[in-house]
Amino acid sequence: MPLTRDQKSDQVGWFENVLNDNEVVVVMKNAGMTVAQVTDLRNKMREAGGGVKVVKNRLAKIAIGDRPGSDVKQYFSGPTFVAYSEDPVTAPKVIVKWAKDNEKLEVLEILGGLMGETALDAAGIDSLSKMPSREEVLSQISGSLTAPWTNISGAIGAPAANIAGCLKTMTEKEDA
């Protein structure tokens, strides 16, 4: 059943919001995925904080328009769908992992994507998937910031412990 003009307008608006609200959009070719496989991929993406949706190519190209990174339009041909996430590495990580776990099926082909205003090819998406997530980077920074304080408190406490040890040894010698 063809979409009405209002439905098409809603889809274009939805995809414009996805492009504006998310750091990364991954474009994939659906090479005959079953409903169960698509559902599994959607569930994994939802758990990670992203989303997956089938898009109409013509409507996706309209939504992309002439914005920076519009080279990504070339990937919208044939049966395509997109994955998106606010964190720039979440969607690529989930998609690449799912594709590797199901590589025997050969049903998912990563075509490229858009990160901010930069169009990426499949190799770029693969590179993004290998980067640490926002949470991992924040925990590394937090660890780097707290490590000096831990070292300082250890250095401050060490002389006191040494003095206490010396006093204990001296007391034991006097008692003997």
Automatic annotation (TrEMBL):
Protein name: Large ribosomal subunit protein uL10
Family: Belongs to the universal ribosomal protein uL10 family.
Subunit structure, as described in the record: Part of the ribosomal stalk of the 50S ribosomal subunit. The N-terminus interacts with L11 and the large rRNA to form the base of the stalk. The C-terminus forms an elongated spine to which L12 dimers bind in a sequential fashion forming a multimeric L10(L12)X complex.
Organism: Parvularcula mediterranea
Pfam family, one: Ribosomal_L10
GO MF term set: large ribosomal subunit rRNA binding
UniProt entry keywords in alphabetical sequence: Ribonucleoprotein, Ribosomal protein, RNA-binding, rRNA-binding
Keyword Nucleotide-binding tagged: no
Residues spanning the membrane: none
